[in-house]
Design brief:
mainly beta; Methylamine Dehydrogenase, Chain H; 2 domains; five-stranded mixed β-sheet; 1 helix
Length: about 500
């Protein structure tokens, strides 16, 4: 009896597949990949005239549309559910009267494209939905990749590839799932800078002051620009077709992302190790001349500067901008909150040691490391100390926050994960100091170590999985949906 039922089931699927093929039904998406909550426009053709068509994301009925007299519909907006896990998902358009239709795949990815996650530098991944406080204790080594030098660079993770620099002079592209090397590019100088990956291009600096643009798929050099030599460790920020980066000889540069042509430069009074944060048309950056600067992103004109103190107040930390406030650390042990518009100090606090680490800002809290061996959490509005945790050495690494978990490395060779109350959830020990800042993407923590390795740390057991492709005819329509009116010919772009 079971074999007969199985045969009937397979026959039904085959008939539905043939009906779909013969009818010429098709569906297209305006956006085919992105994080949860991405909006995409669904268009279709080949359906019956004026037919009622349900649009599903996986098995969830999100919209009901009436086709026009040509059997087409276009630009129906749906939002990818916040719960959609990384991986391949399916958008189905199914005609109610025949239970036939068409499908298009959508790839959910929670990419970490540059230092600080976004050009604002707040190091918050709001899309992570695999790792959380209840399962992060299950993190373990998925793979490690050996380079020829210490890995101080922080990773970017884009479209299933990890991009990272090494002190061996190379930029590496690694398969995010396996750690296999896809390509490497030799610069001839150490690469402490963290890559930014935008529109299929990898932007990264060397310690000699050369800014490179590399093809993200092949590693081929597209252009290079000699900013300043030597001593660049600043990481680029890419906004609106412009690359912003600091240089060892006191300058901040703006360079065309497509050509490498210098657009402007601004001279500070000291080397610029700090990585720029860019938002709302303003570039924020620190300098070893003890100041934090705000520059017009289009012209490089100084909008304001804030002095952090005397000769012991060099700013190595990179700024994070959130809710109209610039947060940054100082070598004079301080952490500062500045009005992003005026540069006025809102508050400052003192840790027990110089602050090389850059802040992460999430849910009204500033997280930052210090050379006093601590990871600190301060109220972003009042500066009140919420919690701190003492590691076994200085904390140069910058925290990353994702789905209720704070991740950070320490010079005691370990990577840590805390809940938002400061309780230690997990740690992993590498063979060297961890000054690299973690990137959290698609349920995996990626980080470099001074033991020359790149690490991928993830759930090795019972990791959540994306839903399998649903069969047409098996979907259940939401009968409470109100139908949308015909919208014209299908958009096939």
């Amino acid at each position: 009896m079971k074999s007969v039922r199985a045969l009937i089931h397979l026959t039904t699927i085959a008939i539905l597949a043939i009906a779909q093929f013969c009818s010429g039904q098709s569906v297209t998406l305006s956006v085919k990949s992105g994080p949860p909550t991405t909006k995409t426009l669904v268009s279709g053709s080949g359906f019956a005239a004026n037919a009622a068509i349900d649009i599903y994301f996986d098995t969830t009925d999100l919209a009901l549309v009436n086709a026009n007299s040509s059997g087409s519909f276009s630009k129906i907006s749906i939002e990818v559910p916040a719960s959609a896990l990384p991986g391949t998902h399916w958008v189905s358009a199914e005609q109610r009267s025949t239970e036939t239709g068409a499908q298009a795949n959508f790839r959910v990815r929670t990419n970490w494209v540059e230092r600080g996650f976004t050009p604002k530098g707040d190091s918050l991944n709001p899309y992570e939905n695999v790792l959380n406080p209840s399962n992060v204790s299950g993190l373990d080594l998925l793979w490690s990749f050996p380079t020829g030098g210490a890995v101080e660079s922080s990773p970017a993770v884009v479209s299933g590839i990890v991009y990272i620099g090494s002190d061996d002079g190379n930029v590496y592209a690694l398969n995010a799932s396996t750690g296999a090397k896809l390509w490497s590019f030799s610069t001839g100088y150490s690469v402490v800078s963290s890559p930014a990956v935008v529109n299929g291009v990898v932007y990264v600096c060397t310690s000699y002051g050369i800014l490179y643009a590399l093809n993200a798929s092949t590693g081929a050099e597209l252009w290079s620009y000699l900013a300043s030599a030597p001593g660049v460790t600043s990481s680029p920020a890419v906004v609106n077709g412009v690359v912003y980066v600091g240089a060892g000889y006191s300058n901040v540069y703006a360079v065309s992302a497509s050509t490498g042509t210098e657009l402007w430069n601004f001279t500070t009074g000291g080397p610029v190790v700090s990585s720029p944060a860019v938002t709302n048309g303003v570039v924020y950056v620190g300098s070893e001349d003890f100041n934090v600067y705000a520059l017009n992103a289009s012209t490089g004109a100084e909008l304001w500067s804030f002095p952090t103190g005397d000769v012991l107040s060099a700013v190595y930390s990179s700024p994070a901008v959130a809710d109209g406030v610039v947060y940054i650390g100082g070598y004079n042990d301080g952490v500062y909150a500045l009005n992003a518009t005026t540069g006025a100090e809102l508050w400052s606090v003192t840790t027990g040691g110089p602050v090389y680490s850059s802040p992460a800002v999430a849910n009204g809290v500033v997280y930052i490391g210090s050379n006093d061996n601590n990871i600190w959490a301060f109220n972003a509005t009042t500066s009140a100390n919420i919690w701190n945790f003492t590691t076994g050495n200085s904390v140069y690494s910058s925290p990353a926050v994702a789905n209720g978990v704070v991740y950070v490395g320490s010079n005691d060779n370990s990577v840590y994960a805390f809940d938002l109350l400061g309780d230690l959830l997990w740690s992993y020990t590498t063979g060297g100091a961890v000054t690299s800042s973690p990137a959290v993407a698609n349920g995996v923590v990626y980080v470099g170590s001074h033991d020359n390795n790149v690490y991928a740390l993830g759930l090795t057991e019972a990791a959540p999985q994306a839903i399998a492709r649903p069969q047409m005819g098996s979907l259940r329509p939401n009968l409470s949906l109100k139908p949308l009116q015909p919208t014209g010919a299908a958009n096939t772009n």
